[in-house]
């Protein structure tokens, strides 16, 4: 997948937001997929209408159909009153289907109909309803692998993924750290702290960064895990991935969002064979 900077990504999302077509946002857990979905809604002509989110992974299969489409009284045990679903609540606005890869195949077929013509039936009803909600879906799964396994419908995928955005993990766009810190109100980060932040692999992505910022705001310092992080904490596989593209120290530093000196130290530690000996007066140092 193409990895682009967050500024470029948001510019593309702003353009896509002007249409009514469905959008699929892919990325690891914690990369900010819902935040980007909200950005798309806020940038769209629908911004004054509701933004409604449904976590497809958090609801049991027996409830998610009712959650999306609503139900009539007596539709099932416990349905004591009619209840509109999320498609009705998001009318004229945006409906976020979070973690769409968790949705059951049976429900996927019903969702496909909504995306095709905006029509659906509430659970227990034979009265057709219509919605004008625009769908944005997110997933942390490899959808193409799910297609091969037969657990995700091809026709639904192509309906959802008219436009697809990939949000890279934080470890692959460490150059964005200053902008992200600024966005969450963190100013005047010392060079040593910034080096420490850039040396951490951020397995929890932006969500972990936000938690770390909250920790710092309350207790006055970064979490212990970050305090212990050094430039050596940068995963070797990231370094080797950069080195597979270039052995130029400045280019490696730019790709990893670290200083040129730090790049040199990492290469010296993990790939010393790539460092050419200095030559002086015809002899190596």
Structure description:
The chain is an alpha/beta fold and 285 residues long. It folds into two domains: 161 residues, 3-Layer(aba) Sandwich (Rossmann fold), CATH 3.40.50; 103 residues, no CATH class. 44% of the residues lie in helices and 11% in strands. The chain has 14 helices and nine strands. The strands form three sheets. A five-stranded parallel beta sheet has the order 2-3-6-1-7. Strands 4-5 form a two-stranded antiparallel sheet. A two-stranded antiparallel sheet has the order 8-9. A hairpin with an 8-residue loop joins strand 4 and strand 5. Helix 5 packs across helix 7. The mean pLDDT is 86.
Helix percent reads 40-55%
Give me the CATH fold name of the largest domain.
Answer: Rossmann fold
Q: Kindly provide the radius of gyration, computed on alpha-carbon positions and rounded to a whole number of angstroms.
A: 24 Å
Count of individual helical segments: 14
Strand order of the largest sheet: 2-3-6-1-7
Query: What would CATH call the architecture of the largest domain?
Result: 3-Layer(aba) Sandwich
Q: What is the class of the largest domain in the CATH system? A: Alpha Beta
Largest sheet data = 5 strands, parallel
Q: Could you name the ranges where pLDDT drops below 50 across 5 or more consecutive residues?
A: none
Topology as H/E string?
HEHEHHEHEEEHHEHHHHHHHEE
Span between termini = 43 Å
State the total count of DSSP E strands.
9
Shape estimate:
elongated
In CATH terms, the superfamily of the largest domain is P-loop containing nucleotide triphosphate hydrolases
Which oligomeric form is depicted? Answer: single chain
Q: Beta-strand level of the residues, as a percent range?
A: 5-15%
């Amino acid at each position: 997948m193409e990895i682009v900077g967050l500024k470029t990504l948001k510019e593309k999302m702003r353009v896509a937001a002007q249409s009514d077509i469905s959008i699929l946002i892919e990325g690891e857990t914690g990369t900010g997929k819902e935040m980007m979905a909200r950005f798309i809604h806020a940038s769209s002509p629908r911004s004054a209408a509701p933004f409604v989110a449904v976590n497809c992974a958090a609801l049991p299969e027996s409830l998610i159909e009712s959650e999306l489409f609503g139900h009539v009284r007596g539709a099932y045990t416990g349905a004591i009153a009619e209840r509109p679903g999320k498609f009705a609540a998001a009318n004229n606005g945006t409906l976020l289907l979070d973690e769409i890869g968790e949705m059951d195949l049976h429900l996927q077929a019903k969702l496909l109909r909504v995306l095709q013509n905006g029509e659906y039936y509430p659970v227990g009803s034979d009265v057709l309803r219509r919605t004008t909600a625009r769908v944005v879906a997110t997933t942390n799964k490899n959808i193409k692998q799910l297609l091969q396994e037969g657990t995700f419908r091809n026709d639904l995928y192509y309906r959802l993924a008219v436009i697809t955005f990939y949000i890279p993990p934080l470890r692959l766009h460490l150059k964005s750290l200053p902008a992200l810190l600024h966005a969450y109100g963190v100013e005047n980060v010392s060079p040593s702290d910034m080096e420490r932040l850039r040396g951490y692999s951020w397995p929890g992505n932006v969500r972990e960064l936000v938690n770390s910022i909250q920790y710092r705001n309350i207790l006055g310092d970064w979490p212990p895990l970050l305090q212990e992080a050094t430039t050596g904490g940068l995963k070797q596989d990231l370094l080797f991935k950069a080195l597979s593209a270039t052995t130029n120290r400045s280019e490696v530093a730019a790709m990893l969002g670290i200083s040129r000196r730090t790049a040199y130290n990492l290469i010296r530690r993990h790939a010393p064979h790539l460092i050419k000996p200095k030559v002086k007066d015809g002899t190596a140092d």
